[in-house]
Amino acid sequence: PEGRYETDLAEEAILDAASPRHCGGALLMTLMNVETDRVAKTLLDLTQRVFQQLPQDDVNSMLSREACYRALELCHNSMIATGKRRLNFSDWFQAELLPILRTELTENNPVAMRAMQARAVTLTKAYARSLKGEEFDAAFQAIAKLMAAPDLVTALCASRCIDYLAILSVQERESGEDSPQLLAVRNHSVFALGNAFALANRAESEECLRVILMCVSALVEANGVYLEPVLQAIAEQLPPLWERAGDSVPIHSCLLSVLTHLIMKMGYSTVENSHVQAVLFPLLDYCTDISVVNRAETLLEDGLRLWLVTLLSSRVATIGPKLTSMLPRLHLILRSGLEPHLSLKVLQFNSILLGKQVVEPLGDFLRELLVTLTSRVHVKAKASGDEMEEDGGNSGGSSKEKDVGTMRDAIAALSYAEVLMQVFPALGYSISSPAISKVMSFISSGCEDGQRLSVTIPLLEVALSSFGRLIWINPIAFDEIFTQYNVDPSQRDLKVAALVKTWLGVVTSVSLATMISKKAQTIRFIDQKGAALSLCSAICRSPTLARVAGADIVEFTRQLLEVESRGNISTEALVEAACGATRQVVGDGPLGDAAHMTAEMLKLDPLLSVSLKEALDNAEKAVAMSSSQQSIM
Q1: H or E segment and range at residue 349
Q2: CA gap 6, 38 in Å, rounded
Q3: Cα separation of the two ends of the chain
Q4: Which of 133, 241, 601, 610 has its Cα between 20 and 30 A from that of 284?
């Protein structure tokens, strides 16, 4: 039966040359594309005649109905296409499909009858978006019950359908309101999970177990904290599944997905559950063991994501020792240069939770790593001039995962550098300043070997933000980038003016998302305030900056101060927007210590808490002094 189910799955790979899809199905879809109206009418007429004229309990009649259902499933896109709906699925579902789904069959029933019930399940999945609220509820309840069907093919089809319906219910959630579909899923999910775990015990093949685990993962995602009362029961099912996983990459990947959703949705209570821990930490160890051949290519990225979610949902008092014991593995991953966009995030939250002793032993290595990751921050034109070389220029893609020169890695490195200076200013400055200074020198020069180069906007934003943090800690760093990298003195004033103009242009640009979102506007204000405070601080220590761009910076800060006064923007509002620890997904559970520690750190962050008025007054004095000195000269 499992082989039959896997064959059905393979048939859906229409673009796969090796697909076992029969030629009749391929021909039907071709005809539907060419003569949509005629073929659709013929198919609907045939289905109606088969249903009305043939005896319901005859085996051959059942097979004919199942074939018609299969044809309608293949052509579902054309049948309910936007603009012309050729099939009223709601009426058909109520009249034919729902009674079939609710029929209780045994292994003694004819195979044709069981096949028709399995087809009704897959047909409902194909047309699921056409189900109305009450119909969706009825379909979900009936199909969840079929996961316990004696016929294994029907049960596996039901599992895959429940997976799809659960994900669909999350997608239908609008404006933070729970949709009728999501409420229906939550009403029957405990029952569905019980049947899913029971089905997992019946399945033997790797592919079928993977399908069932994905169903479990989708149900957890749709329910979140609503599953808290049955967390213990769910957790007890995980260790046996871990034991069955063996060396199966797909099963480990599914377990990663299940645990990630469990932890994201139910918070630290999941991490601290003994049954979850019996799988969580061995699974993390397994997936991040890069000494095993092909492990980095198959499971490392998902393993690091689960590690990050675990950190966000951990309390140091209970999980601290386990987190500490995993640090040597993190050091190995960092030194390998694998997945730095995730491994640096894992290091960041480890240091927030456990302190600077996490970072100090890696100081020299991190300093070199950040320089390496940001060594190619430009976007170079290809020979044709039509495309730009991004993500490190991996046109072939074969070395993408190991290439430490990608744009994504450069952005991750600069983001980490900024956070490190925010959490541990002195240590962070020591580690981050070489990479940031080199990047800013390149941005200021805008060329390499005589060729004009450009930088992507996302990288430019994070580079300027990290540079702002750098010059807040050491205001003379602004001048140092123009002297340290031998900028022509005759061009220095032009370079300084151009850099400030670019910086102010970046932080004042407004996207459509910013215009319609209050939270996005607050985050944009945080960027602007950070830039204003950093530049005002640099003005007071840099005569060149005060002379060349002081007036522009003062005017920008004055306008920003007016915005702050009109909007009555408090430090608390800025901290809430900047924290970024509240996950905007369905049913989030309580976060761990990282959220509270991050909020407390932000409350003390000078780039959020220092008065713009005070900074403006000091900057105006510095600019006035510079002007008077120029007039004397």
Answers
A1: helix 340-354
A2: 33
A3: 93
A4: 601
